[in-house]
Design goal:
This protein has 126 residues and is mainly β. It has helices spanning 13-17, 96-101, and strands spanning 24-33, 39-49, 53-64, 68-79, 85-95. A five-stranded antiparallel sheet has the order 1-2-3-4-5. It is elongated. The model has no long low-confidence stretch (mean pLDDT 92).
Length: 126
């Protein structure tokens, strides 16, 4: 049986940033939609297995042209030394107007294309 507990433990970012050998990595695009040529929305997962842990990122990104950007991410971390899994959930969202107010120029912006939704423009406070 599974036991769920709320914890204040964050993901071990120092461990995730280490340049250890990657035993296995896979990225899977579950779905993608161009929103009738009005933006882009997609759901993907990236999984990597390292010598002492595994990490997964489930990411839903959305851009509705001239309206908003949204990113919902769920990160899972599991150490091979324990039987627990840490989960971190984030939600970032900002309107075009908010981002314009921060000085972001949308015309010919390399962060916005058919390949890139543009959620990299979102900040920590969005």
């Amino acid at each position: 049986s599974l036991d769920w507990e709320v914890t204040e433990d964050g993901l071990p970012m120092d461990l995730l940033r280490q340049q250890d050998q990657i035993h296995w990595y896979q990225e899977v695009l579950f779905w993608e939609d161009e929103l009738a040529d009005n933006g882009l929305c997609r759901l993907s997962v990236r999984v990597r297995v390292m010598p002492t842990f595994w990490f997964a990122l489930l990411l839903c990104e959305m851009r509705v042209d001239n309206v908003l950007f949204k990113e919902v991410g769920t990160r899972y971390f599991g150490s091979f030394q324990t039987d627990s899994v840490l989960r971190e959930w984030t939600w970032k969202e900002a309107s075009y107007e908010d981002l314009k107010g921060r000085g972001i120029n949308f015309s010919e912006n390399p962060a916005i294309s058919h390949a890139s939704i543009g959620t990299v423009l979102l900040g920590e406070k969005d």
